Amino acid sequence: MSTFHGPACGALVQARGLTVARRGRTVLDGLDLDLHAGERLFVRGACGAGKTTLLHALLGFVPAAAGSIRLLGRSCRCERDFAPLRGPLGMLFQDSGDQLFGPTVIEDVAFGPLNQGLDADAASARAFDALRRIGIAGLAARPVHELSGGQQRLAALAGVLAMRPRVLLLDEPTAALDAASAARITAILAGSGLPMIVASHDEALAAALATRSIDLSAPDQHPARRHVRGDISFPV
């Protein structure tokens, strides 16, 4: 198991000139972005503006047509570079069904720690602790396919946290949750102390957590070249 230690200073996540095309359309065009320790960066934008694409590109799930990506101080260009960093950078997908595949909740949440090299007992203990923190320890033995949409969301987040990430990338983390569960997730994320990039339409979540935000939507709703520095986003 590899341990990654980023630079003492500088960005934990950095993109320069990031350009991504999907289905023949340029979604991100020359984006510059930095995430530093202690920051909780919220990504806003209309549907199709590239919020999910940005998160996926930062972890190498979709290829960049141009630009560069550095994660925890390491340049990432291909799958071999990205793959070892998908534990230290924990990703919560927009569709929980894309993330849950274990037969039971506890087995699903323990999968990541097992892949990190923990033995079965240690992985199960870490998984149960993550479920307890999320507030769904009572679902540990439940088959994943029997969970409601909101329960799937909570279980997926538990799986991310069980891997003890250094950075979180979260795609609509409160989607499909009732008010009580959304408040629980907000409290967990606030108390985690982890830097994070969050794609979300939840204004209450942003008000509670965001240290700064960016908007990927150009005024005409078409992709535009944007630089992200400090706490502003502006087209050039």
How would you describe this protein?
The protein contains 7 helices and 11 strands. It is of the alpha/beta class and 236 residues long. The chain has a domain at 12-88 and 195-219: 3-Layer(aba) Sandwich (Rossmann fold), CATH 3.40.50. A 5-stranded parallel β-sheet has the order 6-7-8-3-9, with helices on both faces. A 4-stranded antiparallel β-sheet has the order 2-1-4-5. Strands 10-11 form a two-stranded antiparallel sheet. Strand 10 and strand 11 (232-235) form a beta hairpin. Mean pLDDT is 87; it is low at 1-8 and 218-236. It holds the Pfam family ABC_tran. Residues 13-235 form the ABC transporter domain. GO terms for molecular function: ATP binding; ATP hydrolysis activity; ATPase-coupled transmembrane transporter activity. It comes from Thauera linaloolentis (strain DSM 12138 / JCM 21573 / CCUG 41526 / CIP 105981 / IAM 15112 / NBRC 102519 / 47Lol).
